Amino acid sequence: MELDPRRQRSGMSAPQGHGIRFLVESALRSIASERVTNWPTTRAQWVERLCEALMSTSETSHQSVIAELISIGVSSQDIYQIFVPEAARHLGKLWLHDEASFVDVSIGAARLQALLREAEGKGHAKGVDTSIPLGQSVLIVIPEFEQHSLGAFVAADQFRRHGLWVHMAIALNPDELVNLVATGRFSMIGVTAASRKTVEKLAGLVEYIRSRTETCPPVVVGGRAVDEIADVARRTGADFAVKSVREAVERCGLATVAETLSSDIAL
């Protein structure tokens, strides 16, 4: 008696195999259908979904969200010109409302920067504002060569409590910073410096920004380096080196609300 080789290998008859395959395919279709059904229905919901992915432990989940947007007909240009800037603003709001930690926001911002730099070569991200807005008027810069960012986020909160609006520029390259400063929206640029190494590199960055913008607001350096190194303003070419947010506000003559701060933090 001859045996069916397929039946011998699988241990089941052909009809049984077809039945199991049908069940598996049905389950996969059900999962796919449920996934699509659970997709966001508004732009705001898509932005929230993208932000969650940007801050997740997965390195690629935000790219999956972008692929989903493309699959429903959103153009690459709209993703980088509309959804990415809105995601940056939403990250700032999450931090301001204590719904995300500075670590989460930093991770999200870094992934946004990587997305945009990848898209620049394709012409999709030209002119996109990549700062994380926590308000308006003051730009706080965490240079791409600075490893410590906690102080800058705490200082941003202090500026906000003074009644100022703040944009966080996290690890932007020099040209990106120039484009941001050139918009003329800021009354002060605050740069955080935690080490001697950062101070040494800041001189070149400050000079680069000033040489490529028609009008540059006062540049203020703050952070641990100001306490530990003499003549930071002279070394970096900044207008001021300060040890507190209050001092930065006063040196730059910024208009603020009268609020007593329990602890005034440097950049």
From TrEMBL:
Gene Ontology MF terms: cobalamin binding; metal ion binding
Residue ranges of every copy of the B12-binding domain listed in the record: 135-267
Pfam families linked: B12-binding
PROSITE patterns: B12_BINDING (PS51332)
The name this protein goes by in its record: B12 binding domain-containing protein
